[in-house]
Specification:
With 273 residues, this protein is an alpha/beta fold. The protein has eleven helices and eight strands. Helix 1 runs parallel beside helix 2. The protein binds adenosine monophosphate and manganese (II) ion (3 copies).
Length: 273
């Protein structure tokens, strides 16, 4: 049976609620899923409850952003304690910065003749962790552009005129935060971040795994990172990075990349040891 260890819900920039995500995973016959919202664990408890009802294993998780040399680096934290007060406070702080950043991007868009009300961005985010995907969605809704991709290409991508850098912690700090709350830190989608040269450093900081299978990795990338995982003695993980966003190439459908369930068994072994 397959698993999917990288999914976004409405607690961040996913389209499905945590409950709907669980239902969808059940309908696809998945054995286990991890909810990995950006800077949020708000969807975890509901997903755990729903998982219990529907008989599917839910792994509490999170995706945290970091950066080095103007490159986005994301880390996944599996089995974090989603009830840890300090951790939740840190996440709330990150979300506050995200809201401020979105408002700055809306201002920059105004200066570029894209007039979208900030309230609509807030509405799109439904109290969740606000990302550029929400800003892009409002731009599409208001007819300024045809697709989320176009928003990133023309305006809010890293090179775009309306891009605002996100507040983020250093890789060392992010990994430390995950470990301090009982989590297993994993380097997310290395094929997108292209930070291979930093992997030994991240291992020193405490990562235990690397996301070898990902919705946007090619077969070649998956094979390459699987070899790299073996060489560095890291646990391979995998997930679709499903967001449910229409007309965005981000991620694939839930379960679409057939992540083998022994990946999860390996993560569990680390957890016990
Ligand atoms: P943020 O975390 O606010 O920087 O927003 C990045 C999010 O936008 C990612 O997590 C993706 O879900 C989404 N996204 C959708 N399309 C793209 C794209 N073409 N490039 C980058 N991010 C994208
Ligand atoms: Mn996202
Ligand atoms: Mn990511
Ligand atoms: Mn993700």
């Amino acid at each position: 049976m397959a698993i999917d260890l990288h999914l976004h819900s409405t607690a961040s920039d996913g389209v499905l609620t945590p409950k709907e995500l669980v239902e969808k995973a059940v309908s696809l016959d998945l054995r286990a899923i991890a909810i990995t919202d950006h800077d949020s664990v708000e969807g975890i408890e509901i997903a755990l409850e729903e998982g219990k009802l529907k008989g599917i294993e839910i792994i509490p998780a999170v995706e945290l952003s970091s950066g080095l040399d103007c490159r986005d680096i994301h880390f996944l934290g599996y089995y974090i304690d989603h009830k840890n007060k300090d951790f939740c406070r840190q996440l709330a702080e990150l979300r506050k910065y995200r809201t401020e950043r979105a408002s700055k991007m809306v201002e920059l868009l105004q200066q570029n003749n894209i007039k979208i009300p900030f309230e609509e961005v807030l509405g799109e985010a439904r109290n969740g962790s606000i990302s550029r995907a929400h800003v892009a969605k409002v731009m599409v809704n208001r007819g300024y552009i045809d697709s989320i991709e176009e928003a990133f290409e023309k305006y809010i991508g890293r090179e775009g005129p309306c891009f605002v850098e996100k507040y983020y912690f250093s890789p060392k700090k992010v990994i430390e935060i995950i470990i301090n709350t009982g989590g297993i830190a994993v380097l997310a989608h290395p094929g997108l971040s292209e930070v291979d040269e930093y992997i030994p450093r991240f291992i020193d900081y405490g990562i235990k795994g690397i996301e070898v299978m990902h919705g946007e990795h090619t077969e070649e990338q998956s094979e390459y990172y699987l070899k790299l995982a073996k060489r560095y003695n890291l646990t391979p993980t995998g997930g679709s990075d499903y967001h449910g966003l229409k007309r965005s190439k981000r991620g694939r459908k839930i379960g679409a990349i057939n992540v083998p369930d022994h990946f999860l068994d390996e993560i569990k072994k680390i957890r016990i040891s």
